[in-house]
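agent> call fold_tool(seq_1)
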Amino acid sequence: MQLFYFPSLTEQTKSFSFSKEESKHIVKVLRKKENDNLFVTNGLGYLFSTKIATASESKCTVDILSFEKQESPKIHLHLAVAPTKMNERYEWFLEKVTEIGVQEITPIICDHSERKTIKIERFEKILLSAMKQSNQYFLPKLNSPISFKEFIKQEKNSQKFIAHCYEDEKMDFKNSFNLKEDILLLIGPEGDFSSEEVILAIQNNFKPVSLGNTRLRTETAAIIGCHTVAVMQSN
């Protein structure tokens, strides 16, 4: 199934027109014509079945035939992940966790972060593309970058975890959470969190966890954390 995106759709919408850019793609590139069916999501869990009413490269208009709403995930998984030195690695992480299933992502700027400039618009396009490619109906929320210290102090989740590489006492992540409450997991940059950041997190009720026996890259650790929660939910 090929999936399209139109964020302002609601249960009351009867018809709508795609943007000029999307209309050109649908009609000229995909060669869709009047009466062809298209599947569209608003990124909020809805799948709309539509039929093309006007197949114009400048304004492709469709009528909504029916819709269904996907059940929301059991828990809200929020990944707060430091940007990687190589932007491509962070983009890969965004793509994969969207495919697996994540609800919220926050780039956090840490003491050891080598990259502090974030192209949020580029990241949003990566998430949208991954959602459509994997036929998911929920678009993850992407927050603006924030410093580690600011982020730590404002988060109120009851299940808060920080994955770090220090030789301290840590729980195995997969055994540390329950599936009845939302989860927040912090992943640090290359070079890990600073010791001061780990202490600050623990003081703010974050639990130290391990994601395995090997030292993982930032993007790998984030994907494993996301996959762990997804597997536990599916059991």
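agent> call fold_tool(seq_2)
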Amino acid sequence: MEFPLGLPPLRFAAAPAKLAFPPQGRPMLRTLLLATVIAMTASPASADSVHDATQRELPALLEFYRDFHANPELGLHETRSAKILADEARKAGFEVTEGVGGTGVVAVLRNGAGPTLLIRADMDGLPVTEETGLPFASKVRVTTDEGIDSGVMHACGHDTHMASWIGTVRNLAAMKSQWHGTLVMIAQPAEEISKGALAMLQDGLFTRFPKPDYAMAFHDSASLPAGTIGMKPGFVLANVDSVDLVVKGVGGHGAYPHTTKDPIVLAARIVTTLQTLVSRETDPQDAAVVTVGAIHGGSKHNIISNEVTMLITVRSYSPEVRQHLLDGIARIAKGEAVAAGMPDDLMPVVTVRGGSTPSTFNTEPFTGRLTGLFEKRFGKDRVTTVAASMAGEDFGRYWLADKSIQSSIFWVGGVPRDQWNESVAGKRALPSLHSPFWAPQADAVIGTATEAMTAAALDVLRK
């Protein structure tokens, strides 16, 4: 038999042996039994109020999820999604401000003296044409800001994030008697292009609204079984930098290479030497990635071009390693150009694009506190330690803006159990986040995340 969200069955002990009581003790026994029955059926402490409240909301939350999934919006264009979230927060009694950092929403619920907790959900989809085959699959097409015609899809699961945000809003508004302090629920735009968190901070998130003592978020996972929670203290997501490297040369006829300065050969030298930044210049215990993702140069077999453009992604965790890699790219490019005999006016041009994503760091003791809370609530078999990822996420900007904040992001698995089992057996390759085939088991993600967020908030803001 299957149980909701993978929860284990309730187990009842065998009936005790029949006890013999003398006649004079039976009235007292009947009184005790009646009191016990009344306490078991009437006392709120006998039920799991967080789980029960979440399960009552889950059908409505799945309707929100399907609606968000069918109507995705790209970063800084999330007007429809933002309005739905703002309206739901207002109905729950929050003070709501829209248009923060573009399309961001800030909902504040003040409930007396106590800590301030910020909970974030991101809203944007991706320029991906959906191929999941879901009955509510996105059919949205847009022309992107870059002028490209594309489908739009919630291929990163932000639709589950928004639905869980609504569930958490509803739960905590209904449970005001169980907590005190200030709750700041934010709906953030443009996570996928790493602009939303910075835009909200620059628009006064920590000055116009209560500054948090704690910040929390979750992300669905395409590498964990449905309903499993992934935790890790320390660095969890990477610095992500995009570097444009223009290699200059002196063009000419391919039959007379001695009359030219070939930028393609120079670019090849640079690609090879860049590998030493990680393999020979970075401590093996420090994570670092330098990947040349694209090279564009030349137009014909027998023409040596004037220029080659290289597109590079750079990943790291610590700010020191990040700076070393970026400085190293510029140094190696110039050094190889000098070795190739390039004059000073033809030195390579290195540009670090705007929109870099800083690494995300989960603080202690907050992350350990959440881990213990989730293990107690869901069982240790549903809480696992995950490895740090070289992916990027701009949630880390909130902690970087004020390192006195205790901050943590966790993962909730979305891989359906049958697919997970087939993957473990080597019979299936799982789609990753950003894949046109990614379709998380929404009830497990939303149910688990909403319950986890609600329980965590009640713990942080407990009386």
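agent> summarizing second result for user.
The CA atoms of residues 92 and 173 lie 6 Å apart. Residues 49-70 form the longest helix (22 residues).
agent> awaiting next instruction.
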